[in-house]
Amino acid sequence: MTGVVTDAQESRAQERRPGLLVRARAVSVAGPLLALAIAIAFFSIKSDRFLSGANLSLIAQQVMVVGTLAIGQTLIILTAGIDLSCGAVMALSSIFMTKLAVDGGVAPLLAIAIGLLVATGFGVLNGGLVTRLQLPPFIVTLGTLNIAFALTHIYSKDQTISNVPSAITWMGTTFDVGNTAVAYGSVLMLVLFAVVFFILRQTAGGRHVYAIGDNAEAARLTGIHTNRVLLAVYASAGLLYGIAALLLIGYTNVGDPQAGQTDNLDSITAVVIGGTSLFGGRGSVVGTLIGALIVGVIRNGLQLIGVASIYQVLITGVLVIVAVAVDQLARRRQR
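RE: above sequence
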């Protein structure tokens, strides 16, 4: 009799689970969205320039690189992993693209393709070490961070690469929407968010990502090829880092070996502030986009009202701690 009752209870719990997941995702997005609205309202009152088209376009351009990195970071964190190498991989990819085109005489489109392959290769390396050798993602990506960082400086010889072909910097060019110049890179970032959102919400692969983050062993027992999914996640993240490298070149018009040194932390910040759980299995790329915008709005707004840059870092750190604390409280309530 006890077994029958238990089975019935489990069945009802499974029936309720999809609804609970939908509500949890909605709540995880609602908080960051409210924070973004408050930040926008505050800086709109403090500065007349904040809501100008030119300034909003500037925020979008400042966010597009970290935002694209944060998409890949979201995929990995949803599986209960983390990637410390994303900024260094992006920098290495950007150096390959620019140096091959400028110093190597390689056609710009081929140089871009090679840069994307380099970044994707690092993603495959990370995923292979995590899945095949069962190494912790933190340790693996800490190691590949140092490898990518060293290769960037060795290959570039610590020299900034200028006179980059326009085909590689094209993502930094703009088109007019009314009186506002909008960068093509900002549009690409939004398209990438939309594509990944669709994949996570509407495909079996996306559901598998959430299942692995929620309970990898249970996912494996239900027939999900966990190692295959994880490898695909890390490879996809690597490709996104390569795209971020292309956006970075478009924004700066150079190949800079010093780039990306704090972007790994900025991408994690965007993901955490956006409501994705560091423990995996819960979150949304929509929240990540909002988190990236929150960081961009706060930094831009504080700069407009004349607050020193060190306080921007301070406030961002406080936001991260608050976001993680809220996540912990939510997990305890679910138990």
